[in-house]
């Protein structure tokens, strides 16, 4: 099977290949090389058993990601590359007539449980397998903020809904303000074993 191509028009096998990266981390690095996309690897860190960093990279950005270069698993970076090119920019052109030039995130790696609750399982953030997105910056300088623009009945709100739906094509779990109050101001995307899109 040919390596996953992160830049080609997605076909029926694209997501199959993307989601298989969880069982074959090396195939992820091959995908970036085959797609001629540069990647900076992050050394593995196994000091804490449930908060390991393995097969991680600095999130490569064609658009500005702030704070810069967060650590994510390679398969998160691969999903992001597909999301950015085939969903995010398309939604921006369709609903706002412009491009996205920047994204502000609230973090990727954090050694903690889901919702910071002691009795819950480890969050995908504990292995840098997730990212939280709060703000999208448009080419004309305007900002679209989850906290302000979600469900506002305007093009910005329609755009955010399209971003959420588009993200569900690539990420395993997508949580929006529709999910719960803890996500009122950001999207959570992760590449863990569960499948949720809300
Ligand atoms: Zn999150």
Describe the structure.
It is a single chain. The protein is an alpha+beta fold. The protein has one domain (14-197): 2-Layer Sandwich (Muramoyl-pentapeptide Carboxypeptidase, domain 2). It is 29% helix and 21% strand. The protein is built from 5 helices and 10 strands. The protein has helices at 14-20, 25-34, 74-96, 146-149, 155-167; strands at 40-42, 56-58, 64-66, 71-73, 100-107, 130-138, 143-145, 173-175, 187-190, 196-197. The strands form 2 sheets. Strands 3, 5, 6, 7, 8, 9 and 10 form a 7-stranded mixed sheet that branches. It has a 3-stranded antiparallel sheet with strand order 1-2-4. Helix 3 runs antiparallel to helix 5 (155-167). The longest helix is centred in the middle third of the chain and has 23 residues, at 74-96. The radius of gyration is 16 Å and the shape is globular. The mean pLDDT is 95. Zinc ion binds at residues 125, 130, 132, 188. Residues 27-198 form the Extensin-like C-terminal domain. This is Extensin family protein. It comes from Paeniroseomonas aquatica.
Task: Chart the SSEs and their pairings.
Elements: H1 14-20, H2 25-34, E1 40-42, E2 56-58, E3 64-66, E4 71-73, H3 74-96, E5 100-107, E6 130-138, E7 143-145, H4 146-149, H5 155-167, E8 173-175, E9 187-190, E10 196-197
Parallel strand pairs: 3-5, 8-10
Antiparallel strand pairs: 1-2, 2-4, 5-6, 6-7, 6-9, 8-9
This protein binds zinc ion.
Zinc ion (ZN) binds next to strand 6.
